[in-house]
Amino acid sequence: MSELFIPLIFLAVCCVLSGPIALIISIIALNKTKENSARQERKTNAADASTKHIQTLADALAEIERPVPPPLPVVSPSAEPIVIIQQPKVQRETFNYYTQRQQQKDSRETAILEQRIGTRWILVAGIITVFAGVGFLLKYAYDNFSIGPTGRIIAVAIGGGIALLVGEMTRRREYGIVAKGVTALGFAMLYAAVFAAYQIYNLIGFTPAFVFATLITAATMAYAVVLDEVLIAFLSLLGGFLTPAIAMSKMDSPVPPFVYVLILGIGAMLCAYYRKWRTVNLLSFLGTFLLYTMWFEDSTYNAALCAGAIPPVGKTLFVLGWLGVFFAIYLVMPIIYGLVKKVKSGNEDACLVLANAAVTLYYLYTVLFDSYRNYLALAAVTMAAIHLAASEIANRRYKEDANLRLILQTIGICFATLAVPLYFKLNAATIAWACEAVILTLTGLRYKSPLTQAFGFLVMFASGVCLFCDLPTHTEKFSFILNAEFGTWCFVAAAIYICHLLYRKSQSLQSYSAIAQILYGFSVITLFISASMEWRWYCKYDIVSAGDHIMLKGLIIILTMIMLLFIIRPISPGGIVPAILAAGLATIGTLFAAGNFPRFHNDSFTIFFNLNLAIVIIFIAGLFMAARLFWQAEEKEYDSRGFAFMFALGAILTLWVILTEEIYLYFYCYNRFEEATANWKFLAQMYISIMWAVYGTVLMIAGFWRKIRTMRYISLALFAMLLVKVFLIDTQEIRNIYRVAAFLVTGITLVGISYLYQFLKKKGFFESLLADADRSLQDRTNKEAE
Prior knowledge:
83% helix, single chain, mainly alpha, 786 residues
């Protein structure tokens, strides 16, 4: 070891001297760069003056050499070559001018890069080297030298004082960032001395160590505030928070570090009172709650919570008390400067307020949820009151700061909403969240805050989740409609409908119309789901003997009503979204009615005059009504006439299918429940063919009467299907007189339709249709041209 003594001493000396050497180099580099900048500025000014002189001469030359226009019609051919000869000279001078300016720009960028290297990068390298050298020197002195621990700590403290002195001297000579870095190095060395005295050498106790650290932090922050140096404040706080973080494992009681962190937080808040240093606020917030988390995760209190035990009330109050203190500090810190100076807060301030509320809520939930849930609800109400009070203070102090006011109001309302499910049952929570969605939507639209509107959608989603978490709504007999579960679903649907009205009346953005349509769709769908479930559970538990066909009939009525709700104005906002949803429900209803209609008849019945057919006819009438509403709507956003055509076509086809099933089921049920009939299938097929012929004839007449070409085409398609049925199916299924009747009715009907076409052709019906079509096309073209 002795042979390494001299090299190690040399290495330590190099480490210590490298910092001052780097400092000297940076100072020299700064002076050089200042001289280079001044010299370059003089050259630039001279070049600019020369350039202006050259440009003046060029302009004068152009004025002298500009040709005089000769009298017409004589043209002088010699004037133009003079301009061509002299022009390149001016272009060459202009090119030289821009080339010189580009060279000056490159030289200036090089000088700036050199200045950054000399004043920043070398400075950072020097500070890191000095700090590392001091640490290695302390370590080496501890292992090899006979200097006592007290001497070593004093040496480091003296080094820190010297660094502070050098930093102040260089600051007064306007060395800028170099002085700041050296000053920060001095404070860091003082922190290192306190830490080494407590953590490594055990020269001082816990209380003196924190007192010294507090004094250092206070002095540093006062120095930073007076000189308006955010870098020094940042580094001082960083060192202040690192000290307890490193020594946290040796602390038996959390009171001293919490008091120390409280002092740091108060110091940072005082900085925030005088200076708007957002980085200092963020560092203080992160440092405080990271230290709080470090203690909490390793504490016996958290171990008891993880084990499922109930900690003592005294310890719970201790944990929550310090949490409340830190919450208050970081609620005030981001907003105090704006309130005092009456300036608007930034996005960083709003995010810090939101983060403070979120962290506090997390620890409140962790501590109180399992054992003290009612008190957690009370804490949420308290948090809501505090944020709303802060919002009112901000409003009275500086009304122009709408962003801060809205974020405080939103947080307060969210805490108030959260208190409800923590204290009451799920139904009450669902209703409260639905109300909160309306409030947030109204607030967001009133103050044009997308963040508040997003919170409204989030709370609305939470309300919907609660609805589905409470399924099934009924498990036994209940009072139909007049029950809390159905009322909760209807309340949420009404809340969403109110939100849709708020967006519908707000025309500030084009996208609000789409949002209103989507919200209306969710509202009606929520109502549809609730009504369907209510009817299903009622049929299951209260009218069990009625069978499933009663439930199916009720669902058809519900489908019809909900489908029309998507279309009827002004209840519906109109637009493409409700139209698509209505078309989807119409498709589902058509398939549902056609597929389940055979289950409606469980006994013999009177054909065409029975309740089962009447219920399906109600749905078909709803389709025709929807088609009429679409035809009259004349929407600009989409082709409402196209939707009218689709609904009318669906109604016609559904009625045809239902009438076909009605005829077949009549003979089937008569044979099964009333009187056995051997030829019931022949009769059914014959009357189905006759009904098709009559139905096609009615469609054809209606098509000619209303001049609807599509209806006539449907009639022709139906007659084609009738011919296929008569020749391919009826010849196999129907015998004797029934077959003759089917053929005769079909043939006579087709002949009659042919005579109708010939009659209308002679009357000029088709020519008038073509003329009307041309006139309509011309009118549409004229409107588009206008």
